[in-house]
Design goal:
Blueprint: H1 29-37, E1 48-49, E2 52-53, H2 58-61
Antiparallel strand pairs: 1-2
Length: 76
């Protein structure tokens, strides 16, 4: 199998918070963000948004998710 990047990650984000994910290359930043936004669901566990499962209720919750990428992805 593939290399496990993230394991036993759990944290809460207060309402109306701004969160920055920083770390060295290969530390799992992109993997975490993809799991949190539903772009690439986690292999195990759940992502809860307002105590609702993001993956099971993605259609209802996706409009409440925002992400600002580091690089300009629109004009590449």
């Amino acid at each position: 199998g593939g290399k496990q990047i993230l394991k036993d990650v759990s944290f809460g984000v207060p309402e109306k918070s701004l969160v920055a994910v920083i770390g060295p290359s290969g530390s799992g930043k992109s993997t975490l963000l993809k799991a949190l936004t539903g772009y690439r669901p986690a292999n195990e566990g759940d992502v809860l948004y307002d105590n609702r499962n993001l993956y099971k209720q993605f259609a209802e919750l996706r409009q409440r998710i925002g992400l600002v990428p580091q690089d300009d992805i629109l004009h590449k």
